[in-house]
């Protein structure tokens, strides 16, 4: 039928620099997502600026208050302001997701780079092993590492990061393999570049773009996984205001104090949605 | 239906599956039995237990921890091949026994969850193609992103609260054997339905404008006939691939779902084994997951040629 393709109009790249160009085209939803992420980052950096309440010590006689003007999102069973806990908890979600994505990105890219750049038998063996990691559900793989590393916030984050290594390695390898065939890489080898030198100066930087974009997409997923481990009790111990742990604690009061479970869950959803939205925009460009 | 799956093809796929299983065993063995060091020493050296060095030595002999690890490795492989998954360090029970008790429960939950998820996805996809249901399509093209962002444990808690406590539809105290599965199955099904529905919708859109669909319509076929006979068959293929990948999600989902709903099963077993640092149990669960992944993907590979004649190798003139 109408198989004539539309004339391709090159996307007009705005003259604005940096973030704006990376996120082009900027829709209202994307603006909102960026705004949400900025607010959450500010919460993580300076929670004291956003709330005067103590996230760990409660006020007696103030337990299980429903949302009010004084406590916008209510208080928990120890009389702690829930909004304060959520604001202080942003630090755990963000630092955990950063750690997880960092581990996956670094180790995965390294593995993919070695496999893709050396090629041949090394490549086959490495990638076969990477495929085996994909056969184990990521949560079970994360649990296996938690048994070794022990419970804790950083341990859980590292475990989540390890489970994403396989995906990063596959992506990095496919990029490296395609970059290696380019003429400028051939030229660099031809003009006497050493193997490591060419890989470091030409192959790695040119393979990195899509790997970094994937890292952005992984960020929301990591927040979700870390909250799951927190919920199961393998992450930060109480009284840490980690969002997943807060849901687990609030669950016991669900029938009478719904706000203790509902709000942390909504916070996770909104931040993950925003991170995914921004991640996909970065990936597109 | 005669397929020309060559024997060689099947044997290669089986070989790949066995390799994955062996490698998964080796990786999990190194992770869970070697890297943690001597779990038994750590566990029983605790002064409070008041065990004599002799007693500890005999415990270590019982668990085979006194052997060098290459010996342990081969012993464990041989034991696994005969269906002996070792003993739980916590309960002292054979792991195989705990697995056998819990496997059917999780298989039922996961099977129902998967069926529910696929059914839900199909219903959404078919509804979205009907005229007048355009909004469903618009909604669901946005919904997968939303559903994928919802923590599964939170969804489960919410469902219990709404359907059991607020609406009183599902009894919390002593529910029937099927009644108690409704909410867990829904919790498992919703997140896997989202990506499947999304892919179905995208494929139906793509295939509805393919020349073969226009030709069929031009020859007088009804919209529904074209959809079912021509479009659906093509659209379902990629869904099969997703189904293979989704299997792992189901087991991971079982860990969370069984914990939230207080159901016994493999997921709960895994959750408890982590809490108790019971590596032998976790290794068995990990390997069952890998085994399931291999089997499901093998079946999916075998099903492709059955569904898509183009993937059958032409054999003489009767391809």
From TrEMBL, chain A:
**According to its UniProt record, what is one Pfam family this protein matches?**
BPD_transp_1
Listed transmembrane segments: 30-50, 92-117, 129-148, 154-172, 211-236, 256-275
Which GO BP terms apply? Answer: peptide transport; protein transport; transmembrane transport
What topology in the membrane does the UniProt record assign?
Multi-pass membrane protein
The entry's localization annotation reads:
Cell membrane
Q: Which InterPro entries match?
A: BP-dependent_transpt_permease, MetI-like, MetI-like_sf
Q: Which UniProt keywords apply?
A: Cell membrane, Membrane, Peptide transport, Protein transport, Transmembrane, Transmembrane helix, Transport
Q: Which Gene3D superfamilies match?
A: MetI-like (1.10.3720.10)
The UniProt family comment states: Belongs to the binding-protein-dependent transport system permease family.
Its recorded name reads ABC transporter permease
Q: Which organism is it from?
A: Paenirhodobacter populi
From TrEMBL, chain B:
Question: From its record, what is one biological process in GO terms?
Answer: transmembrane transport
Q: Which CDD domains match?
A: TM_PBP2
User: What keywords would UniProt list here?
Assistant: Cell membrane, Membrane, Transmembrane, Transmembrane helix, Transport
One GO CC term, this protein: plasma membrane
* Regions that span the bilayer: 17-35, 107-133, 145-169, 181-201, 235-261, 281-304
The record's SUPFAM superfamilies line, in alphabetical order, gives: MetI-like (SSF161098)
Q: Which PROSITE patterns does this UniProt record tie to the protein?
A: ABC_TM1 (PS50928)
Major localisation: membrane
Domain ABC transmembrane type-1 stretches: 103-304
Matching entries from InterPro entries are given as: MetI-like, MetI-like_sf
Signal peptide from the UniProt entry:
none
Q: Which PANTHER family match?
A: DIPEPTIDE TRANSPORT SYSTEM PERMEASE PROTEIN DPPB-RELATED
State the similarity comment: Belongs to the binding-protein-dependent transport system permease family.
**Under which name does UniProt file this protein?**
ABC transporter permease
């Amino acid at each position: 039928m109408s198989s004539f393709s539309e004339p391709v109009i090159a996307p007009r790249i705005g003259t604005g620099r940096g973030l704006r160009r990376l996120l082009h085209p900027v829709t209202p939803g994307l603006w909102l997502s960026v705004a949400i992420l900025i607010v959450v980052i500010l919460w993580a950096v300076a929670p004291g600026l956003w709330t005067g309440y103590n996230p760990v010590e409660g006020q007696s006689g103030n337990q299980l208050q429903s949302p009010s003007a004084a406590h916008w999102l209510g208080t928990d069973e120890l009389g702690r302001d829930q909004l304060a806990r959520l604001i202080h908890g942003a630090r755990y979600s963000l630092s955990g997701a950063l750690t997880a994505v960092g581990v996956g990105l670094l180790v995965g890219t390294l593995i993919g780079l070695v496999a893709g750049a050396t090629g041949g038998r090394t490549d086959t063996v490495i990638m076969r092993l990477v495929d085996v990691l994909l056969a184990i559900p990521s949560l079970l793989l994360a649990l296996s590492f938690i048994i070794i590393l022990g419970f804790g916030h950083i341990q859980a984050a590292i475990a989540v990061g390890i489970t994403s290594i396989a995906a990063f390695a596959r992506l990095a390898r496919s990029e490296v393999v395609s970059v290696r065939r380019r003429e400028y890489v051939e030229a660099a080898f031809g003009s006497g570049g050493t193997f490591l030198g060419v890989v470091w100066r030409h192959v790695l930087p040119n393979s990195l773009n899509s790997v970094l974009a994937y890292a952005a997409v992984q960020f929301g997923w990591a927040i979700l996984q870390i909250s799951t481990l927190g919920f199961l009790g393998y992450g930060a111990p109480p009284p840490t205001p980690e969002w997943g742990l807060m849901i687990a604690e609030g669950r016991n009061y669900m029938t009478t104090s719904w706000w203790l479970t509902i709000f942390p869950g909504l916070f996770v959803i909104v931040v993950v949605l925003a991170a995914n939205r921004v991640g996909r925009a970065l990936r597109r460009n | 239906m005669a397929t020309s799956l060559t024997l060689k093809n099947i044997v290669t796929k089986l070989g790949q599956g066995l390799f994955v299983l062996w490698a998964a065993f080796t990786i999990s063995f190194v992770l869970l039995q070697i890297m943690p060091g001597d779990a038994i020493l750590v566990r029983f050296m605790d002064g409070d237990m008041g065990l004599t060095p002799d007693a500890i030595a005999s415990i270590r002999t019982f668990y085979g921890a006194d052997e060098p690890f290459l010996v342990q490795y081969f012993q464990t492989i041989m034991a696994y091949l005969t269906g002996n998954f070792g003993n739980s360090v916590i309960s002292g029970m054979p792991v195989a026994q705990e697995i056998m008790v819990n496997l059917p429960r999780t298989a039922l939950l996961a099977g129902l969850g998967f069926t529910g998820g696929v059914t839900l996805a199909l219903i959404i996809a078919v509804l979205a193609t009907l005229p007048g249901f355009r909004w469903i399509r618009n909604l669901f093209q946005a919904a997968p992103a939303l559903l994928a962002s919802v923590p599964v444990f939170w969804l489960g808690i919410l469902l219990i609260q709404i359907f059991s406590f607020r609406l009183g539809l599902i009894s919390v105290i002593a529910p029937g054997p099927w009644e108690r599965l409704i909410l867990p199955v829904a919790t498992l099904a919703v997140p896997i339905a989202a990506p499947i529905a999304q892919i179905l919708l995208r494929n139906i859109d793509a295939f509805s404008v393919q020349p073969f669909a226009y030709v069929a319509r031009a020859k007088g076929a009804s919209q529904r006939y074209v959809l079912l006979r021509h479009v659906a068959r093509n659209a379902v293929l990629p869904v099969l691939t997703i189904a293979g990948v989704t299997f792992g999600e189901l087991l991971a989902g079982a860990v969370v779902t069984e914990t939230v709903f207080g159901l016994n099963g493999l997921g709960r077993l895994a959750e408890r084994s982590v809490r108790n640092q019971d590596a032998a149990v976790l290794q068995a669960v990990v390997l069952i997951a890998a085994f399931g992944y291999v089997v499901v993907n093998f079946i999916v590979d075998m099903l492709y040629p059955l569904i898509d004649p183009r993937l059958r190798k032409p054999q003489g003139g009767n391809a």
